[in-house]
Write a structure and sequence with these properties.
Elements lengths: L28 H29 L24 H10 L4 E5 L10 H7 L2 H15 L1 E8 L9 E7 L3 E6 L4 E11 L5 E7 L3 E8 L2 E9 L7 E5 L15 H24 L3 E5 L16 H6 L15 E5 L5 H18 L16 H7 L1 H28 L9 H4 L2 E4 L7 H14 L7 H7 L3 H24 L26 E2 L5 E2 L12
Antiparallel strand pairs: 1-12, 2-3, 2-9, 4-5, 5-6, 6-7, 7-8, 10-11, 13-14
Helix pairs in contact: 2-4, 5-7
């Protein structure tokens, strides 16, 4: 299977459109209609998604530079990477940490093996990054071709730039989805897959039109594609992008500010002089040719003769303009960008003379942490259905959803990313209040250990316990038997049943009356 690559000569913005197939041999009219609706929706969003991609990659060019930029400097390219910084700041805090269930918290149903075979730990962060750029991404679960070297179950993330779906408001899921598998040199699909509620259909474009390549039933009774949406709403179930219209506008303003700063630098890099009362012949060489102004500026010795009246020319230097106004404007734009994206200003390259304290840094990241926690909650609902599809699509999986599989939950790491010391101090206090927490894996998760680290720690703990038990069996310790009756020589005292024992100073205490000694105080 091939995968689409974004082509440099994508002609979508020039009006080049893709006509949906009206007939494909072997495909019924219902699926042809679904495919047509999906392609039209994909084309309607394609140009906008490409614009967001250009902002993310720093390739968007300004349409209106401004009248203050000289024509000679209008081709100067300046890039501000704030959109990419905002996307990565959100995506890097959404860290998936495996699946858990109500009854079995350690890799339920053996899903981890399927995830490893599909490199899910690498491709899910890519899908989350694509979600932050385009507002949503898709994850398709289909049977794999084991004979061709594929996993038994394929888990394929799809970018919204090359996929689309139809939302069902009643079932809160997709009615159908499609993805482009390969494109030609002009960005037109040559191979695509249609995902329906009962089957998956793969089509290929030939010189005679579209033809059916592969069709199989998945048996899920629902579309095997889930949507990862960022900030979905009732009106926008596919979410919104981090690169919103305000972000684009602020980025354009920042590029103009940087461009004005560079233009100003071209002027104040050379000093400006005003020469009054100079003889014009002073600016000519021996042959009468004008001396270039730049040679006059960088010359070590410059001679100016007196004018006709014998007066000495007066030389004045014009004060240079400062770049500080541009820096202040860029700082103001950074603050606006931070308020729009919840990214701390310090992450945008704006620094202060006094370094921020730990409390100030935590307060600056609070909105970003809340935003990412809300995003993982939405992502978790989609990943739960992905995990369920994986289990039911395996040859040894259940045919229907059982009660335990319904409790499958995606686990995420804390988006606040606390240090091990801070998390450990908090857990010590919790264990002091709830001692039984020390015997659970939740305590290790909250401290910040990954699933792999927890597995290794528990394995080493069990191994050490087994070695200790074996050592006790092979080398039992001799414990002296307690003396039952008979005299005991313990500091000159009597036996225990005689009612006497000695304290640390050798004094006999607890001696009953009439057993020797006096009972007088």
């Amino acid at each position: 299977m091939t995968y689409p690559i974004v082509q440099a000569n994508d002609l979508t913005s020039m009006g080049v459109t893709i006509t949906p197939p009206s007939y494909v041999q072997g495909v019924d009219d219902k699926n042809i209609d679904l495919l047509a609706r999906l392609i039209m929706q994909w084309q309607a969003k394609r140009a906008r998604n490409k614009l967001k991609t250009d902002y993310w990659n720093g390739k968007h060019k300004l349409d209106h530079i401004g009248f203050s930029i000289p024509p000679a400097l209008r081709k100067l390219e300046e890039v501000v990477g704030w959109p990419a910084k905002a996307v990565q700041a959100h995506a890097e805090r959404c860290m998936f940490d495996g699946f858990v269930s109500k009854n079995d918290s350690d890799d339920p149903y053996g899903i981890q093996r399927t995830l490893v075979e599909n490199r899910f730990d690498i491709e899910l962060p890519m899908a989350i990054t694509s979600t932050m750029v385009h507002s949503c991404a898709f994850i398709a679960v289909t049977p794999g071709d084991v004979e061709a070297g594929e996993p038994e179950v394929l888990v394929m993330p799809k970018s919204a730039q090359w996929a689309s779906g139809l939302w069902n408001w009643r079932t809160r899921s997709l009615d159908a989805a499609f993805a482009v598998n390969n494109v030609d040199d002009y960005g037109r699909p040559v191979e695509m897959t249609l995902y329906a509620t009962d089957r998956t259909i793969r089509l290929h474009n030939t010189s005679t039109g579209w033809r059916l390549v592969d069709e199989h039933s998945h048996g899920l009774n629902r579309v095997p594609v889930e949507t990862l949406a960022y900030r979905p709403t009732l009106d926008r179930p596919f979410g919104s992008s981090v690169i919103s219209r305000p972000v684009m506008s602020i980025t354009d303003d920042a590029v103009r500010t940087v461009l004005r700063s560079e233009t100003s630098a071209e002027f104040y890099s050379a000093p400006q002089y005003l020469l009054l009362g100079a003889d014009p012949d002073s600016f000519k060489d021996d042959d009468g040719n004008p001396i270039p102004v730049w040679e006059f500026i960088i010359g070590r010795i410059n001679l100016l003769s007196k004018d006709e009246d014998g007066d000495v020319p007066k030389l004045e230097q014009i004060s240079q303009q400062s770049v500080q106004p541009h820096i202040e404007q860029l700082r103001e734009l950074a603050c606006r960008f931070a308020g729009e994206t919840n990214v701390p200003v310090s992450s945008l390259g704006v620094v202060t003379d006094n370094p921020s304290s730990a409390e100030a840094m935590h307060a600056a990241e609070k909105d970003l942490v809340i935003d990412c926690a809300a995003a993982t909650r939405v992502f978790g609902a989609a990943l739960r259905r992905v995990g369920q599809d994986i289990v039911m699509m395996r040859s040894d999986g259940p045919n229907e959803m059982d009660d335990e599989l319904a409790t499958l939950t995606a686990r995420w790491r804390n988006p606040a990313l606390p240090s091990v010391i801070d998390a450990g101090d908090a857990m010590v206090k919790l264990i002091g209040a709830f001692p039984w927490l020390a015997d659970t894996t939740v305590a290790l998760e909250e401290v910040g250990f990954t699933d792999e680290q927890i597995t290794r720690l528990l394995a080493e703990k069990r191994r050490n316990q087994a070695m200790g038990s074996l050592d006790q069996l092979l080398n039992p310790k001799e414990v002296p038997d307690a003396q039952q009756g008979g005299p005991r020589q313990a500091g000159g005292g009597a036996e225990p049943d005689g009612g006497t024992r000695t304290d640390g100073s050798g004094q006999t205490v607890g001696q009953p009356q009439g057993a020797g000694g006096s009972d007088t105080a």
